Amino acid sequence: MKRGLIVGAGLTGSLCAALLRKEVSGALFLAVWDKAGDSGGRMTTASSPHNPHCTADLGAQYVTCTPHYAKKHQIFYDELLAHGILKPLASPIEGMVIKEGDCNFVAPQGISSIVKHYLKQSGAEVCFRHCVTQINLRNGKWEVFKETGSPEQFDFVVLTMPVPQILQLQGDFTNCESDFLYSYLN
Fold first, then answer.
1. So what's the architecture of 2-60+111-175 in CATH?
2. Which residues are in the Amine oxidase domain (predicted)?
3. pLDDT per residue over 161-185, tens digit each?
4. Helices 112-122 and 11-23 sit at what angle, rounded to 10 degrees?
């Protein structure tokens, strides 16, 4: 069974995991690691410690669908709308710039519900507080080290965290050919 790791449990990592699950034929163990204590990345929803029904979106508060992206990604918007994860934004937000043809959506259960939806779809093993520190290519496998625990080996690794965090990683992965992942996926 092939083993894959996606580093980052934000929107990019969760959607990547869901798409990999749909597209990769055969048996695939898929893991998603994030250094934070919950999913969402820059699309996090926080709850009040005193009232769990009182939430605030940290980062993105709404999603804008431009006419250009509506054509390219309509299937994603339709799916999120059908599951009640997104709903049309009914009221303008102070300071919001509305352009002709744009559609704005909110996530009634919090913006991180989008990320959680895709993580659930992916069937991945999601691990929080897994801070990746080093990646090395050893005997055709990616050896991934984290702050605590033993390193693990994967057939492929997808990094979806911000570039400054990628640049802080140790290891010889930066010297490897960029088409290594593409050869596995194709």
1. 3-Layer(bba) Sandwich (3.50)
2. 105-166
3. 988 888 899 998 766 655 444 444 4
4. 30
